[in-house]
């Protein structure tokens, strides 16, 4: 991890090309109702320009995907894991029966940049203004609520801006056609955005305790195990795939699951006074009282603590 990049995110604004993210567009008159029956959060309750975080589950309540849902005027965008985007698009498309809806994988046609840090909104506004957006439209980006979104039109370009605190710090996702990616990158750099790499972004994310799919959550994970229920689940909406399992855990089990995702601070090799910081690999065992009780899912060195920190699953009882 680059310490200069880390400082940029913590004290200014870091920008990163979100190459691991995919983008699905859901269009048609029934797009919201279609997604309402599939996703864990309330889609039909979203006004234009609003958004939410949601998951798509198996009938057994396990996660097939997580996503940011952005409700634009003419379509709903699903910001998803890029590797799983084609399969997810195909699966959702196969579930359209009588609904007037289409699902299209836009991942290859669009590019996305994340801008993260306390100055993220200032940098984004300045960059959009450089790209020809009107001051009022660019300034509207400052007031975006979590997951809220809008389309900003500039000189021959339309850029979707969405509030996305995916690293656990203030942030925005800026989505543009792939042909406009270079111009967007240049505008962000000129506005003061510092380039950051994936290890730096992961460090900030893990320090914030934010799980990522499919690293810390996968097809074996129930949302409550990962601790995302307050962000991802609506308890007032109608039926969705996997809801029966979720409701059973919440109401009959009191929300208790067999394991839970926790943050860990790891002692250096050689004892607490040792400068030797070793980062455990993904899948490394977590031991308690000399016996293995779980596995690490993500780990980095925290510049603040000067120790390795990790996310991992342990039994609920610990």
Concise synopsis of the structure shown:
The protein is built from ten helices and 15 strands.
Name the average pLDDT. Answer: 93
Structural class designation: alpha+beta
- Give the count of helical stretches: 10
| Shape, per Cα inertia axes | globular
Tally of distinct domains: 2
Write down the CATH class of the largest domain.
Answer: Alpha Beta
Main beta-sheet annotation: 6 strands, mixed
CATH topology of the largest domain: Gyrase A, domain 2
Number of separate strands: 15
Alpha-carbon Rg, integer: 20 Å
Instruction: Pick out the low-confidence regions.
Output: 270-274
- The percent of residues in helical segments reads 10-25%
The sequence of SSEs as H and E is HEEHEEEHEEHHEEEHEHHHHEEEE
Q: Tell me the CATH architecture of the largest domain.
A: 2-Layer Sandwich
Report the span from N to C terminus. Answer: 31 Å
Percent of residues in β-strands: 25-35%
CATH superfamily of the largest domain: Probable tRNA modification gtpase trme, domain 1
Strands of the biggest beta sheet: in what spatial order?
8-9-10-7-1-11
């Amino acid at each position: 991890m680059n310490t200069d990049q880390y400082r940029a995110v913590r004290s200014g604004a870091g920008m990163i090309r979100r190459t691991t993210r995919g983008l699905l567009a859901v269009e048609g008159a029934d797009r919201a109702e279609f997604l309402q029956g599939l996703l864990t959060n309330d889609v039909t309750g979203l006004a234009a320009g609003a958004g939410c975080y949601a998951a798509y589950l198996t009938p057994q309540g396990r996660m097939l995907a997580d996503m940011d849902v952005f409700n634009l005027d003419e379509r709903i965008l699903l910001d998803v894991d890029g590797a799983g985007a084609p399969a997810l698009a195909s699966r959702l498309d196969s579930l359209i029966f009588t609904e007037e809806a289409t699902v299209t994988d836009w991942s290859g046609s669009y590019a996305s940049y994340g801008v993260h840090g306390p100055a993220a909104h200032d940098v984004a506004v300045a960059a959009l203004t450089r790209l020809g957006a009107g001051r009022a439209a660019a300034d509207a980006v400052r007031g975006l609520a979590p997951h809220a979104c809008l389309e900003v039109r500039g000189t021959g370009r339309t850029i979707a801006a969405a509030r996305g605190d995916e690293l656990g710090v203030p942030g925005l996702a800026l989505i543009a056609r792939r042909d406009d990616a270079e111009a967007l990158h240049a505008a962000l750099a000129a506005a003061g955005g510092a380039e950051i790499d994936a290890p730096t972004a992961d460090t900030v994310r893990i320090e914030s305790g934010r799980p990522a799919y499919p690293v810390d959550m996968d097809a074996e994970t129930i949302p409550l195990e990962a601790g995302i229920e307050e962000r991802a689940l609506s308890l007032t909406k109608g039926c969705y795939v996997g809801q029966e399992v979720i409701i059973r855990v919440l109401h009959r089990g009191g929300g208790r699951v067999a394991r839970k995702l926790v943050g860990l601070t790891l002692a250096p090799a050689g004892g607490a006074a040792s400068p030797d910081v070793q980062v455990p690999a993904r899948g490394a065992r977590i031991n308690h009282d000399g016996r293995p009780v779980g596995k690490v899912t993500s780990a980095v060195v925290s510049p603040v603590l000067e120790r390795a920190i990790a996310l991992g699953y342990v039994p609920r009882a610990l």
